[in-house]
Amino acid sequence: MYIAGYTPKAVLALDNLKKYCEEHLKDQYSIEVIDLLIHPQLAEGDQIVAVPTLVRKLPEPIRKIIGNLSNKEKVLVGLNIRQVKNHDA
Amino acid sequence: MLPKTPTGITGLDEITHGGLPTGRPALVCGAAGSGKTLLSIEFIVRGAKDYGEPGVFMAFEEKADELKMNVTSLGFDLEKLQNEKLIKIDHVHIDRSEIEETGEYDLDGLFVRLGYAIDSIKAKRVVLDTIENLFAGLKNKAILRSELRRLFSWLKDKGVTAIITGEKGNKGGLTRQGLEEYVSDSVILLENRVSNKITTRLLRIIKYRGSYHGTNEYPFLIDEEGITVLPVTSALLNNEVSSEQTSTGIPALDDMLDGKGFFRGSSILISGTAGTGKTSLAAVFANETCKRNERCLYIAFEESPQQILRNMKSIGVDLQQHINKGLLQMYASRPTLYGLEMHLVSIYKKIRKFKPQVVILDPITNLVTVGSVSEVKSMLIRLIDFLQTEQVTVVFTALTLNTVVNEQTDEGVSSLVDAWILVRDIELNGERNRGLYIMKSRGMKHSSQVREFIITHDGLDLVDVYQGPDGVLTGSAREAHKLAEINNEALRKHIVGKKDAEIERKRKVLEAKIALLREEFDSVQEQLNKSYLEDEMKEEMLQNKSLQKNQKQAN
Questions:
Q1: N or C terminus of chain B: which is more exposed, having fewer CB within 10 Å?
Q2: How near does any CA of chain B get to the CA of A32, in Å?
Q3: Do A62 and B108 touch (CB under 8 A)?
């Protein structure tokens, strides 16, 4: 997750991300936060223009989800996390 | 006075009276292929090389290699400049298929990247080319617009002079996304206009905050050295003039021009019908210029330089030696190769580089195949005006066409020039010879004689016109008349000689007579003297006798 300082948008995005990961990927995730204010040169590598941007490198193709992640569906689709549905037996 | 940043682009700094406003963003817009990227990269490179101002080029379009290749073809070594930390190129690539937008975001990522790039080399110049590509990658237009607004304000705070490029859309307005709303300090429009199958590139300054600028269109060309803009579009008529006169290379012609020749920095037209020797005259003038160790630029629109060199050699004018010494440059250009504007820019460029004292255009008449007479006239006015400010003498040769060069009404090009030499055919007794006269020569006394203009193996000369009993004689009639006169002269001398002999004889006879008379006179004189003497002696004797007698009587 690329941010440019802990702005309200960034904080909201991080919170949202944690929530989704807890819900769907419990204990199988790790979030790397890159603050561009501290490491500006890293923006070039991943071609970051907007913040906050969540970058998913694998599986390919690369997906960049930008925004505060308030739209859960889109985030999950973007992260290729399918919702586990409880079937009635 | 608004501080300005010079762009280093030939001609552009003249038009803007110094360059772009310092510390502010300028919009350069135009259709695809109009030269926006080239203009902006030249701005950065020249800023780094010529003015020591590092620059950041943020490319939203071309990939790294493409940009490098395009720019290397202009002779700029991007890699070297990057290594020397004079230029930083950042490629921003936004792939729409990769992106999912969920909720609010801003473009701080871009700001950070740009800020980092600027700070890393302490850049003073920035280019964003073409930032409108963001609109293709990101869907939320509202966020984009507000972020762009913020970006341009941020650039101003950073104190960098920026060029933002925008592509001209089909809908109208200067750019596809209406960037002109945010970047309103200065706006430059680049256009490609096609007329009569010929493309002309034009630059127009639509807006320039806080400063006077011409709102005209300025033609420019792109070649292996980058962009050259022609900064002259109007004749201001307030140039300094020289009173120095330079020789034409033909002493007889100099005599007709107040004894000294043409004014330096003046414009001269040599017109005549086909085959009357206009190119020869122009070439002799070029030769004379180079002999004075001054530089001459010869632009041929009809014959190739090799043809001209060969033809001039046959009349004893060796121009090749001047080319070898670097005093003469000859260029051939088919008029239909470019539009008039492009011809003008390309001539301007050569003049700027070579700095000649004399420029020759031979001939100008076929330029009317590319434009109307009034357009050709307008182009020549600009050229003459530009050359006069530089004190460069310009010579045009022209075929006598009624539209371009009209002897009766002084319309056309002949009204623009300071001096006009006419060469015309004189047909007489089945023979055609050339006559030359000076139609006008402002500011000096000039001969109004029509003289015969001859071209020989030793060069050009003007011969006195013969006035026979039937009028002016030229060519073989002149030769015949000359011979006849020589004959008459010889005859006259002969006759006079005979008369002289006659008089001489008579004189001798008379002199002999005089001698004789003198002798007679002398002998008469002698006799007279003798008789006086005798008388005296007689008198003396008588006196003596009487004295003796008296003495005797006394005794």
A1: C
A2: 17
A3: no
**Given an 8 Å threshold on Cβ–Cβ distance, is B112 in contact with A47?**
no
Q: With an 8 Å Cβ cutoff, is A74 touching chain B?
A: yes
Provide the residue ranges of all domains of chain A, joining segments of one domain with +: 2-72
Structural domain spans, chain B? 4-229, 245-464, 470-509
Q: What is the ipTM of this complex?
A: 0.83
The verdict on pTM exceeding 0.90 is: no
The CATH class of the A2-72 domain is: alpha beta
Beta strand B20-21 pairing with B125-129: unpaired
Classify domain B4-229 by CATH number. Answer: 3.40.50.300
DSSP per position, B334-345: -GGGS-HHHHHH
Give the type of residue at B300: A
Query: Each residue of B173-189: pLDDT tens digit?
Result: 777 777 777 777 888 99
- CATH classification code of B245-464: 3.40.50.300
B107 touches chain A (CB under 8 A): yes
Q: Helix (H, G, I), strand (E, B), or coil: what is residue B455?
A: strand
Q: Which among A49, A62, A77 is the top mutation candidate for probing chain B, defined by the most B β-carbons within 10 Å of its own β-carbon?
A: A49
CA triple B419-B352-B317, angle to 5 deg? 55
Q: What pLDDT digit, counting tens, does each position of B371-404 carry?
A: 777 778 878 888 887 887 778 999 999 887 655 5
**Does the bond joining A59 to the residue before it have cis omega, within 30 degrees of 0?**
yes
